């Protein structure tokens, strides 16, 4: 296996960290919307407590 | 600050997605959704979405934990050697944490947002797949997929329980249908990837008991499976739409299974009947569950 140049590896690490952070942000944003919707449904159904 | 080059290479997010076995998940989500839509009580669309999300995430968790436990086995099989763990693209501990995290999240969300009956069945299905099938049975007995097949049979029960809060005869029959469908489905696959399983030391039926016994067993399991598929109609649990589709699709399944169970491999055999049965078995479930929903909403 060809060793990766340290500069290229650093770039790859940063790229993957950014991609993972973006995916996590999207997932968390989606969960916020989902939990808000669940709360509204529960309140409307009279099961909020 | 630590230079980035000295950090371990983080796994790509696509590898985490691959851990969840998205293709298997699609069938699980479909049968769970159909179980929910076939229930006599309608569920709020938001809660219905949450229930399906939980079923999908729970199935993904089970898939991730399966790959965590079977990394050594996957490395020995051509079909699975490219997965994130055997290919060395991810640390095993990451897969374990990911799987446990998803499992806990899916069960908690199902319990708190939908109902505890659905959450309890989801918990049993995840534990059954990971502990009973993956850890206990898979490497020990050729009956691994017979009993382990129950894990994949839970989604319609979960979907039904999410909508109604309880379990009735129809979802139990759907459970039995998938449970009895699993052996012919997987043994048809095992017949044409036999060498892969043999190399990995997995005691699949064709490896342990031979091809002839496997073919015989495919035929035997098809009989009760067809009975479970058709039963909801004469029992009055479904209407004619489901009944006609079930009879037609099951007759085709029985024909393909008969072809597989009565033949033997010769020389450079392309295993066409086995591949046809395997492919059709997937379509068969889609047809039956699709017809079930159509019957409930159109009749």
The biggest beta sheet of chain B is recorded as: none
Query: Portion of residues in helices of chain B?
Result: over 70%
Biggest protein-protein contact in the assembly: A-B, 19 and 15 residues
| CATH third-level topology of the largest domain in chain B | Tetracycline Repressor, domain 2
Helical segment tally of chain A? 1
Low-confidence stretches of chain A: none
Which CATH top level class of the largest domain in chain B fits? Mainly Alpha
Tally of strands of chain B:
0
| CA radius of gyration of chain A | 20 Å
Shape, principal axes of CA atoms of chain B: flat
Helix content of chain A: over 70%
Beta-strand percent range of chain B: under 5%
Low-confidence stretches of chain B: 1-7
The figure for the number of domains of chain B is 2
Q: Which SSEs are present, and which pair or pack?
A:
The complex is a heterodimer of chains A (49) and B (299).
Chain A (H helix, E strand, L loop, with lengths): L5 H39 L5
Chain B lengths: L12 H7 L2 H17 L6 H25 L1 H6 L15 H23 L1 H22 L6 H21 L4 H24 L1 H7 L4 H4 L2 H20 L9 H22 L10 H27 L1
Main location (chain B): membrane
InterPro entries (chain B): Protohaem_IX_farnesylTrfase, UbiA_prenyltransferase, UbiA_prenylTrfase_CS, UbiA_sf
Enzyme class (chain B): transferase
Question: Can you tell me about this structure?
Answer:
The complex is a heterodimer of chains A (49) and B (299). Chain A is mainly α and 49 residues long. Chain A is built from 1 helix and no strands. The mean pLDDT of chain A is 87. Chain B has 2 domains: 12-165, Tetracycline Repressor, domain 2 (Orthogonal Bundle); 168-298. The model of chain B is unreliable at 1-7 (pLDDT under 50). Chain B has helices spanning 13-19, 22-38, 45-69, 71-76, 92-114, 116-137, 144-164, 169-192, 194-200, 205-208, 211-230, 240-261, 272-298. In chain B, helix 1 (13-19) crosses helix 3, helix 2 (22-38) crosses helix 7 (144-164) and helix 6 (116-137) packs antiparallel against helix 7 (144-164). Chain B starts with 12 loop residues before the first helix and ends with a helix. The radius of gyration of chain B is 20 Å and the shape is flat. By secondary structure, chain B is an all-alpha fold. Chain B: GO terms for molecular function: protoheme IX farnesyltransferase activity. Chain B: Its EC number is 2.5.1.141.
């Amino acid at each position: 296996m060809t060793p990766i140049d340290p500069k290229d590896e650093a770039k790859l690490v940063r790229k993957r960290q950014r991609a993972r952070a973006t995916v996590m942000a999207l997932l968390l944003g989606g969960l916020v919307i989902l939990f808000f919707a669940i709360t509204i449904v529960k309140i409307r159904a009279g099961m909020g407590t | 600050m630590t230079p980035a080059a000295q950090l371990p290479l983080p796994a790509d997010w696509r590898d985490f997605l691959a851990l969840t076995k998205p293709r298997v998940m699609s069938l699980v989500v479909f049968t769970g959704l159909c179980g929910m839509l076939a229930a006599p009580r309608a569920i709020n669309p938001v809660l219905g979405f949450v229930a399906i999300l939980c079923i999908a995430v729970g199935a993904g968790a089970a898939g991730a934990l399966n790959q965590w436990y079977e990394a050594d086995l996957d490395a020995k099989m051509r079909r699975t050697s490219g997965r994130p763990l055997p290919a060395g693209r991810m640390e095993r501990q990451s897969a374990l944490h990911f799987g446990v995290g998803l499992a806990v999240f899916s069960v908690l969300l199902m319990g708190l947002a939908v109902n505890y009956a659905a959450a309890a069945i989801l918990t049993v299905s995840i534990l059954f797949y990971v502990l009973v099938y993956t850890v206990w049975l898979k490497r020990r007995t050729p009956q691994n997929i017979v009993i382990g097949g129950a894990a994949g049979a839970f989604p319609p029960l979960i979907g039904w329980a999410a909508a109604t809060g309880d379990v009735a005869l129809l979802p139990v029959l759907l459970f039995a249908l998938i449970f009895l469908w699993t052996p012919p489905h997987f043994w048809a696959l095992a017949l044409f990837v036999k060498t892969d399983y043999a190399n990995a030391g997995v005691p699949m039926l064709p490896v342990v008991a031979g091809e002839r016994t496997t073919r015989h067993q495919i035929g035997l399991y098809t009989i009760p499976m067809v009975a479970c598929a058709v039963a909801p109609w004469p029992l009055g649990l479904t209407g004619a739409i489901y009944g006609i589709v079930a009879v037609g699709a099951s007759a085709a399944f029985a024909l393909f299974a008969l072809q597989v169970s009565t033949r033997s491999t010769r020389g450079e055999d392309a295993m066409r009947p086995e591949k046809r049965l395997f492919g059709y078995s997937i379509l068969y479930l889609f047809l039956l569950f699709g017809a079930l929903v159509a019957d409930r909403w159109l009749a």
